[in-house]
Amino acid sequence: MLLLAFAVMGCGSGKAKKAEQSEANVQTAQTASYQFAISNKDGSKFLVESEEGASFEELVFAVSDGKLYRVKLIGRQQRNEENDNGRQNFENFENLQGALFENLDGKILPSDAEEYEAVWGTILLVNQGYLDENELVSFSRPEEIEEPGESTIEALEKQFGRKVMQAQKVISFGDNRQNSFFSVQFENKGNEALGIYMTETADGKRAYMEFPATFESNEDGYALSVWRVDDDGQFIAPAISAVFKQGDSYVFLSDDSGFEGTHTSFIRQTGDRLIADEESSYSRYTAPL
């Protein structure tokens, strides 16, 4: 009887410890956090533009072009008012105000990079909690322009009731790169233009994001700006700089450079739709240079 009592007590004690440990794990789970940052020329330092008092110590990783780098907050950089030209890019990096991070893995550019090469894209800084909720997914870009297959073109034309004018694969992503992200421009209907983003998974499921626009042409039938400034009427494919997976859905980090600036936003897959999360977007002035 005495041995049985000890066994029961031991079992109860073990359950209590497991419960305490589980509760502790819940309490210590880190809330997902991120910030957009600017890189210096070679990607050895990053800057989060911010006012005094902002704290970013928990941000310990940088995501750039699908790769993960360890980072550390090293201090605060003050604005150089005399030399600051207002541009938020690597060329004006040393003059901007904000939280300064060091790339603990060295730099983004390879050691044999050409003199003209630089890190233009927006950097995503995250904490461990963000990566716990968002699995970083590998992706690749086609070396040459790659069009969708015939069955995909047929499905697009049936879905939107228009002929495809031009379409290209932006990235392949996921295990074995079996999923695709496409950018598509359709033929105009009168002065109604339409461009779309589309994802297509290996099982044939598709999700769309539509960009209707008005094609206002001159006497020669030429339009200077339709979807963005000086796009010459061409629907320009997005620059995808990261892909994450949340459960069964994907999230794409779009980093688009226009005539005067760069706009960074998350595009979230929700069922058969792709939705831009503009509330968490980031725009910066980079040009004209």
Give the SSE map.
Layout: H1 2-28, E1 34-39, E2 45-48, E3 61-64, E4 67-77, E5 98-103, E6 123-126, H2 128-133, E7 135-137, E8 139-140, H3 150-160, E9 164-173, E10 179-186, E11 192-200, E12 206-214, E13 240-246, E14 249-257, E15 261-270, E16 273-285
Antiparallel strand pairs: 1-2, 1-6, 2-5, 3-4, 3-6, 4-5, 7-13, 8-9, 9-10, 10-11, 11-12, 13-14, 14-15, 15-16
Number of domains: 2
Which spans have pLDDT < 50 for at least 5 consecutive residues? 1-9, 21-27
Strand count, sense and barrel status of the largest sheet are: 6 strands, antiparallel, barrel
User: Which strands sit side by side, in order, in the main sheet?
Assistant: 1-2-5-4-3-6
Please report which band the strand proportion falls in: under 5%, 5-15%, 15-25%, 25-35%, 35-45% or over 45%. Answer: 35-45%
N- and C-termini, Cα separation: 86 Å
Approximate helicity band: 10-25%
Number of helices: 3
Radius of gyration: 24 Å
Mean pLDDT: 88
Helix and strand sequence: HEEEEEEHEEHEEEEEEEE
Structural category: alpha+beta
Shape: globular
What is the number of strand segments? 16
